Amino acid sequence: MLNDLVYLRRLWSHDKTLDSLKVALAFAGVVAFCFGTGREDWLIGLILGVIAAALAESPDRVAGRMKALLVTLLCFGVTSVSVRLLFPYPWLFAVGLALSTFTYVMLGALGERYATIATASVILAIYTMLGVAQHADNTVPFLHDPLLLLAGTCWYGAISLVAAAIFANRPASQVVSQVFVALGRYLALKASLLEPVRGRDVKALRLALAAQNGRLVGQMNRARQILLLWAQSPRPAHGARPFLQWYFLAQEVHERASSAHHPYEALSEAFSRSDVLFRCQRLMSLQAAACTRLGQAIAQGDVFDYGNDGALALQELDAALSHVLTTGPQDKALVNALSDLCRNLRTIELRLSHAGQPDALEVISDSTLRDADPQTLAEMWRRLRQQFRPSSRRFRHGLRLSAALTAGYALLNLLDLPQGYWVLLTTVFVCQPNFSSTWLRLGQRVGGTVAGLLAATLFVSSFPHPLAQLALVVASGVAFFNFRAERYSLATACITVLVMVCFNQFGSSYALVWPRLLDTLLGSLLAIAAVAFILPEWHGKRVHHAMARSLSLSATYLSEILSQYRSGPRDDLPYRVARRDAHNADAELSSTLASMLTEPDRYSLPPDAAYRFLCASHTLLGYISALGAHREQDTSGLQLAEITTPEARIQQGLAQIANALATRSAVIVPGPGSTASDQAPELAISETAQRVMRQLSLIEGLLPELAELASGFAVDTQTGQA
């Protein structure tokens, strides 16, 4: 019995559980109402309204959800009525379809909430077409289909508002929980780098670490957006303060975990006969597990107990370090790097040991979060104007999607396709802002559709009873929303089953199998053609900009860190923004290179060199993060020429390489100058200043490799390979 309760608590804490319950209740209510009142013909319209409303939902508080619901109803109402008005006039309808699609895509520039509603509005327009096409004989009132869709939207909106009121802090707890789970995975990967074993594929480990860093940064960005609504609104939510403290803790641990104090290969070679690196690895592995347990505790509302394993591991590490300091290698640089690494792990241990009491965590003097969304009408207009240029990705995507939908509408009229509006629906879901995402979505959509058609056919023939089929409608609808973010193929199969079973209530669904498959193929081809030929967005042609942006923002991060060594450490908003921007740029570079691999070869850079640059850039960010992790005020020490001179060389070198990448020009490789670490032992300066010297030396040592790689890309570009 106790195990069952534990399982149920874990199930309830899952981030998809509440959403699944809301969708299940909405679908079950629609089915019960339609078949209980004898209005089975309303089933499809109401269900499509529920789906559109769920797609437009945003993780907001009650007041915010109410405003979003009103905006959603306004957009849905205007869209569905416009479709109903223009439907009898194909030429006007085509113009309206293109203009409205482009307008909705551009409105997404105002923020994530508006982008979600805009996308759902385009989908609802096609749902309205499906409904109107079913009543081409005009046997129903003019507003029949718009009202059904809006009724479904209101029904789901009401459920969403009630859930938001009852489970007020659940979105905040869920997103912070996911941050710590992702942080735990990152720490586990970082710990694997510390294992002093020869013959390992270090390159694969670094690439996996960079990819996980990108996922972690994305999760932290999502958490910031939600915490803005919970903890930084004019009226902060009750009990939201701990989530903000945990978020700041995750940021600090991430900065420390991403730190690099020396090339790990050199450390492994130097200390291969000692157990000190194994001790470091064990401690970081325990910290990774602790982050995962903390995330689970936050999601379940439990008190987090850190335990004693970390403290015991830290004691063993300190003993191993003391042994190395007395009997280990005489290379001062390696010993200092090892000491800094242990010091960093010790601080992470201290922070996590107090994570169970968020009120006892270190208070952030400036807990302001930057809100990038426009707040006034003037800011909204300025944001929209900035997007109206061919270089804007949103502008390009709006043109492509508008053209694809218009072409699909012309095609279904020319070929007189039965249920041809599924072509448009497929195009909306498949057409993504770039080729790689669209190509991936195409395979998922086609594969999922085929699987869904087979599953629906088998189920309908095996379970002809209406109650069994209606139960499948509810189950497949819930499964669609449960899988649509991470497993789109399975989500497509589920929504295909739902559609086929719904239509089977009013006739044979077997007649829809081949039309559905044909429409999916046509819609997918239109989407991929639009992305490939209409202002195409090739990652291989813009990876230079991602590289330049990564170096430029890393330089800004470095400058902000060193300024705090001079004026005193503080996690204020400018520092946190500089840190987040640098990590965002690193994550963007990683995702850009991954996407580039799916593009045609003529648009790609040499992958080996590109990933070497990614590893070097990620290492650069690690060296800079180490400086951020060890911040201490040393105003006089930071004024020494042994620090200011390499600092100036580094800033100049990074600026030159970034500019060369942005302009696709050759790079002058910086010559090796006198390094700060060579002079550090001879200077009577503070330990803090020596640590800064060591990290600056590592950073400056990376510049020739970065410049060489950047020069290679410039040559490849000039010879036409990119």
From TrEMBL:
It is found in: Cell membrane. The chain crosses the membrane at residues 20-36, 42-59, 66-83, 89-107, 114-135, 147-168, 398-415, 463-481, 488-507, 513-535. Pfam families: FUSC-like (PF12805), FUSC_2 (PF13515). The keyword Nucleotide-binding does not apply. Its main location: membrane. Keywords: Cell membrane, Membrane, Transmembrane, Transmembrane helix. It is a multi-pass membrane protein. One of its GO terms (cellular component) is plasma membrane. Residues 409-529 form the Integral membrane bound transporter domain. Coiled coil: none annotated. Belongs to the YccS/YhfK family. This is TIGR01666 family membrane protein.
